[in-house]
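explain this chain.
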Amino acid sequence: MTDKNRELLTREGFEKLQEEFNYLTEERRREVADRIRQAREFGDISENSEYDDAKNEQYLLERRISEVQRRLRNAKVVDPSGAEAGAVDLGTRVTLRLIGKDEERTFEIVGANESDPGSGKLSHSSPVGRAVLKRRVGETVTVSTPRGATEYEIVNIEAAS
């Protein structure tokens, strides 16, 4: 499999995905199977809405399990220690200063499916993520947004914990 088809993840993102897979396969499957079993006990399944709901839940669960399993199989865990020293990469935390304002924001650069801007986690494929990748402290980057171009200065880079 080429790297282009791999999903880039931080170690934390991979572990969360693994935890979700374990939960879905070990606990949720059992819960849904119990629900189906209980719904069958109500009698005729052809007119049993509880059974239909439980089977629909089972379908959605199995679909999610397949998706998580595929993502785990295609995952490439990026080790921030292997990144170019002093440059922004996956698994690094970068502090940006908005040019023209005394406003700083710190983000951890993560894989696309780990992104959570509200928690300070930006995807490496987001406009800001793409602009800062492989850049160093002191460099200025321009990010195109729907509101126009925004300029940032990279003021700090560190390995994320």
Notes: The chain has two domains: 3-77, 80-159. The two ends are 29 Å apart (CA to CA).
